[in-house]
Amino acid sequence: MKIIVCIKQVPDSASIEVDPEKGTLKRTGHNSKTNPYDLFALEAALRIREKAGGIVTALTMGPKQAEEMMRDAYMMGVDEAVILSDPKFAGSDVLATSYTLFQGIRSLGGADLIICGKQTTDGDTAQIGPAIAEHLGIPHVAWVNSIEDISGEAITVLQKTGSCIQQSQMKYPCLITVEKDIFVPRLPSYKLGLATAKRSVRFLSCDALPDKNMSCFGLIGSPTAVERMFPPEVSDVREYIHGTPAEKSDRMFELLKKRKLI
């Protein structure tokens, strides 16, 4: 089985910089980490490989510093790592990002199963996985809580929604996004780190993708625009409210109204 896991490197703290002209995050030169939700996707892929065999490839779009994240993926046990890296990809919104990853998957020859974390901690849209599936024209199930069965032709998964539990079976190729309670991610292995220290991470530029139409990539290919983006403001100002519950609620109402929050 050929499995591709889409992962992303996200800021490690709220101390980030924003490009004032493009309104996008500056992703280079700052502490970053693997998107926490993607660790569950990696673990799901590795467990499926243990049961059904095959190859697990980690795929991301990002700057060169994403190689550090891919080294961690190797230490968890993935077989291959590919980074889609090109200045032309900068400033991508959900549509352009999903299209770039879709092109990356095509350039790798496709996959039987594609796994994504349910969302990222920087964008929180939860749209990338389903959008990739739509580009590929394959079935998908989002927010999977458990994998019930894996066969040579299909995968059976379980979703727990607020009102029901749904079981779905999909034939390959297909895509799933997984919830954080699906598995406990394994820790990176020092032994695997030594074994994969010389294993290369493959970089692909826009020129290596099947579609080179620049109207689909980066800022040009992004139909949505962020009007303003800024780091959270840090404030040490505190006001403590004392009194009975009724007095506290009245005072809270006055403060919120004064600040025009209600």
TrEMBL record:
Gene3D superfamilies in the cross-refs: HUPs
Residues of the Electron transfer flavoprotein alpha/beta-subunit N-terminal domain: 22-213
Listed GO MF terms: electron transfer activity
CDD domains: ETF_beta (cd01714)
Pfam families reported in the protein's UniProt record: ETF
Superkingdom, natural source: Bacteria
PANTHER family associated with the record: ELECTRON TRANSFER FLAVOPROTEIN BETA-SUBUNIT (PTHR21294), PROTEIN FIXA (PTHR21294:SF17)
Name of the protein described by the UniProt record: Electron transfer flavoprotein small subunit
Biological classification of the source: Bacteria, Bacillati, Bacillota, Clostridia, Eubacteriales
